[in-house]
Amino acid sequence: MEKITAIIPTYNEEIHIEAAIQSVTFADEIIIIDSYSTDKTLEIAEKYNTRIIKRIFDNFSNQKNHAINLATNKWIVLLDSDERIESNLQGEIIEAINSKSDFGAYWIYRRNFLLNKEIKYSGWQNDKVVRVINKDCCKYNGKLVHEEIESSKEMGFLKERIIHYTYKNFDSFISKKNKVAQLQAEELALKNQKATLARLILKPAFRFINHYILRLGFLDGFQGFFIASFYAYTLFTRYVKLWIINKGLK
User: Fold this and answer.
1) Where residue 250 falls among pLDDT bands split at 50, 70, 90?
2) What CA–CA distance (Å, rounded) separates 47 from 152?
3) Against a cut of 0.90, is the pTM above it?
């Protein structure tokens, strides 16, 4: 049987961390890569057989690659704190890793929940993430945000879905979107992109229409409106932050 390392990145995840850890107890090693949480995240994590690594956060790729490099085992399960791996998926992961296939990583589709409701439209219908990797042939690509796994081998797909609770509370949701917008603005600035008036106005408007109407967000009720609004908000904020960077302001 191949041994498995589970990696969970954290920052102030006291609400989620215990359930996240419990959902990866099938792993032989559990690494918590923490960005110096100020709540009870680490106090809770220490109750379990976890290996805690503290690292100042710079970007998502570097944070996860650092933990991957320190993993004892070559097969790694990556889990965000707000995700859960239920028993059927646990069994499928173990079977896939021990199947001797030539896959270097596996995609897993997600069931997304927002404000106590499963989201079935809004562009989230086919949401998928790479959560099982062989570190000998995989690493994150260095993007500051929306980082992606690069694999020198083909990637497979698992059938069971990972559970994803996207909303902790309103303030943390806003904070997360602002952090994403800042990192995306920095990426655009590195590519010499400019924040034009059209980007500030037209792109957010189209993003709302795309998720709420074209991707059937209205069928998700208020949650669909919430998603479309915050996609538009994040895009608007991204270009405001890019304009600030372009002007050399703080």
Assistant:
1) low
2) 37
3) no
